[in-house]
Amino acid sequence: KNLTIETRSGIRQLSLELKKGTVCQVTVNMGIPDLTPSALPVRWQDSQMVEEPIAIAGKLYQITCLSVGNPHVVVFLDSIDNLDLQKIGPCFEHHTLFPDGVNTEFVRIVDRRTIQMRVWERGSGETLACGTGACAAVTAAVLTDRTDRSVTVHLPGGDLSIEWRKKDNTLYMTGPAVHVFDGWIDLDDEACI
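and the corresponding structure tokens:
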């Protein structure tokens, strides 16, 4: 079954996998990654920013910048478990290179088909998962020959499968469909008007 939705990062085409009438897994066409500096934006003169050394908070990082409907910086590290994201995340988010702020993915390569990731989202802080961030991380990993084009991304909130298809240059994200919560909103409340 197919579905089209509108998100803040663009129109997305979804393919739903059903088991006994219930959606159990969703694959999303995440579009084509954009590495042009103006897409983020990032203050950078070259045509792309891949594995560029940048000093942030007194340390040199190799960063890759791209947009997957929203701006991302990907940083590859040997370890991310003990990384103080509350300290380093805002340094990336508010760096002068990024006039509109930026989401930052801190990534550890497990093997050619698996990565581990933590994310700092602009305006939100550390989050348990980020679909566009997982896509950005895999794109950066492929561009720097760290992984294959089909990768499992381990996030604190669960795993995502990301595939960057060579034939159409498009990213596809697959993950489980799970019930998160139920809620009600009273639309008759005058406070909502």
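(Above: one complete record from the training split.) The first strand starts at residue 2 and ends at 7.
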